[in-house]
C-alpha cells in the first residue's frame, strides 16, 4: 500500500515485495493422479450425495468432490514440504464454501515464509550455519532451495496467505508461548509496573488536591504527569494492547517484517512510526 501510485496509474503500476517471486508453473497431471488415488470422487459417481463433501478444483476446473478434506490437505502440505509436490503449488481451503482449490499455473506472486510448528520455528541454528558455509556437516551442498526441500520455508501465494496465521517476528512466537502458559512477558511486566506507578501518582495528586484545594490548575497537571513513563523505547514496534494477552496459533513467520514491503518502501526509516500517508508520499 505504501508504494501504490495515486491518480491515473493507480491499480496499473504494481510493486513487487522483497523476496517475492513469480510462479513459473508446473504440470497439473501429477496432482490430479494423486487426488484420484486419495479418494477423489468424480461428479458422475457422486451426483446425489454431495451435500457433505468438499469440492476440489485444480486451476479453476472442478475435478470432483472429497469426503475427508482435512486429511487430504495435511498430506498435500507434507508432500510439498518434502519437495515431492512442486513447492509453487498453492493449496487453498475455503471452509465456508466447502471448497479446496489447488493452483499449479504460472503468473502467481509467491513469497517465502518460515514454517511454524507447535508455536516454534522449524528453522534451527544448524540450518543457518549450513546456509552460511554453503554445505552441510556431511559435505553436501546446502543452498536457499534446500531450505524449501527441508521443510524450513514455504512459498505462499496471495490466496493461500489468507488461510494462514503469520507472525511478524520470532519474539511474537515466544510471547504467544508464554501467554499460553499464563506467564507474563518482560514487556507486560514493565507495562504493568508503569501503570501501577502512574496510578499511584494520580492517587497522590488526588490526595494533594484535597489538602490544597486553592492550588493552581497548572500545578495539578504537573502532579498528574509525575508518574508518566520516561523509560519507554521510542523505536520499539507498536503492538495492539491485547495482542500478547491473546495467544494465537501461528502457522508461519515472516523472514523479516520489511519483507512485506517493496524496495522503495523498505528503505523508509521507521515506517511503523509514521502516519501512513507519509509513507505513501
Radius of gyration: 26 Å
Strand fraction band? Answer: 15-25%
Main sheet properties: 6 strands, mixed
Distance between the termini: 11 Å
CATH class of the domain at 19-107: Alpha Beta
Count of DSSP H/I helices? 10
Indicate the CATH architecture of the domain at 19-107.
Alpha-Beta Complex
* Unreliable runs: none
Shape: elongated
Pfam family, one: RNA_pol_Rpb2_3
Biased composition (Acidic residues): 223-233
EC number: 2.7.7.6
Biased composition (Basic and acidic residues): 202-222
Structure report:
The chain has helices spanning 29-37, 69-81, 125-133, 144-149, 158-161, 170-180, 186-211, 217-224, 263-266, 276-280, and strands spanning 21-22, 54-58, 61-66, 90-94, 99-103, 109-117, 120-121, 153-157, 166-167, 252-253. By secondary structure, it is α+β, with helices and mostly antiparallel strands. Among the domains are: 19-107, Hypothetical Protein Ta0175, Chain: A, domain 2 (Alpha-Beta Complex); 186-227. Strands 1, 6, 7, 8, 9 and 10 form a six-stranded mixed beta sheet that branches. A four-stranded mixed beta sheet has the order 3-2-5-4, with helices on one face.
